[in-house]
Design brief:
The protein is mainly alpha-helical. The protein has helices at residues 5-18, 27-33, 38-50, 68-72, 75-83, 105-120, 125-128, 133-139, and strands spanning 54-57, 63-66. The longest helix has 16 residues, at 105-120. It starts with a helix and ends in a 10-residue tail after the last helix. InterPro entries: Tscrpt_reg_Rrf2, WH-like_DNA-bd_sf, WH_DNA-bd_sf. Keywords: DNA-binding. Pfam families: Rrf2. One of its GO terms (molecular function) is DNA-binding transcription factor activity.
Length: 149
């Protein structure tokens, strides 16, 4: 199983915000820090905002902040929400798999997927930014002063 690029980016953005202690960087600053295009980061930030993980304020003095849910909520729950519901394999894709009515693979892979999520369930973003990760995240292109005018 491989996470989508959007989920990977969402987790990196959440981790970056978790270590900034009250600083509220812009989406562009976060995109620069995690080395992704602004347009990708903006889409992911919108999704994180919709899930209640990030607060985003527009305009002068605006920025991004991780919510309490984003900081201490279950990583397994967050990844499930970001990845969406679905099987690891596409048994019903077009054309459908000819083995689907008698195959045991789908069930085994579903169990493996749930074991993956169960491993993430007790972990939080806050856990992910503990040493040695936190200092490395802080060293990434720190947010600088915002331009005025």
């Amino acid at each position: 199983m491989r996470l989508t690029k959007a989920t990977d980016l969402a987790l990196r953005i959440a981790m970056r915000l978790a270590v900034l202690d009250g600083q509220e960087p812009t989406t562009r600053e976060v995109a620069d820090a995690v080395a992704v295009p602004y347009s990708h980061a903006a889409k992911v930030v919108t999704r994180l905002r919709d899930l209640g993980v990030v607060e985003a304020r527009r305009g002068r003095g605006g920025g991004l902040a991780l919510t309490g849910r984003g900081r201490t909520g279950s990583l397994g729950r967050l990844v499930r929400e970001l990845e969406g519901v679905g099987d690891v394999v596409g048994c019903e894709d077009d054309p459908p798999c000819p083995l689907r009515s008698a195959c045991r693979l789908r069930g085994v892979l579903r169990e493996a997927q749930e074991a993956f999520y169960a491993t993430l369930d007790p972990v939080t973003v806050e856990d992910l930014v503990a040493d040695p990760t936190g200092p490395v995240l802080l060293a990434l292109a720190p947010p600088g002063p915002r331009p005025t005018g």
